[in-house]
């Protein structure tokens, strides 16, 4: 990717408007409200791509705010006793904890299923 494309990434194209009543619509700043656990469709899978061969348990499909995602990630990490991260709608738990994470999510009322091998 050229420097020009990197620099323009995320820009909207609106530079200046002489209309005093103009109100720009910021599409990217609206966060989705968090669905209840019974409405969430979470996928629990094992992943080791782009991680130097290390295995991680990946939870995808969370719909909600970043704070709620981090809170759920923190709860899963503490119950598994390992590290990880929660961002971009995904929760990463270090190691192969698919069965334990699936059990924890279902006991909390989430609709979760195991995906992949």
Features:
single chain, 117 residues, alpha+beta, Translation Initiation Factor Eif1, 5-stranded mixed β-sheet, 26% helix
Structure in words:
This protein is of the alpha+beta class. It has a single domain, classed as 2-Layer Sandwich (Translation Initiation Factor Eif1). Helix content is 26%, strand content 21%. It is built from three helices and five strands. It has a five-stranded mixed sheet with strand order 3-4-2-1-5, with helices on one face. A hairpin with a 2-residue loop joins strand 3 (84-87) and strand 4 (90-94). The longest helix is centred in the middle third of the chain and has 15 residues, at 66-80. The two termini are 35 Å apart. The model has no long low-confidence stretch (mean pLDDT 84). It holds the Pfam family SUI1. Belongs to the SUI1 family. InterPro entries: DENR/SUI1_TIF, SUI1, SUI1_arc_bac, SUI1_dom_sf. This is Translation initiation factor 1. Residues 43-109 form the SUI1 domain.
* Biggest sheet descriptor: 5 strands, mixed
* Number of helical regions: 3
Q: What gyration radius follows from the Cα positions, in whole Å? A: 19 Å
Count of separate structural domains? 1
Apparent shape: elongated
Give the topology string: H per helix, E per strand.
HEEHEEHE
Low-confidence stretches: none
**CATH fold-type name:** Translation Initiation Factor Eif1
**Widest sheet: strand ordering:** 3-4-2-1-5
The end-to-end distance, rounded to whole angstroms, is 35 Å
Number of strands: 5
For this structure, what is the CATH class? Alpha Beta
Structural class: alpha+beta
Helix content: 25-40%
Strand content: 15-25%
Organism: Roseivirga spongicola
Keywords: Initiation factor, Protein biosynthesis, Translation regulation
GO molecular function, one term: mRNA binding
Family: Belongs to the SUI1 family.
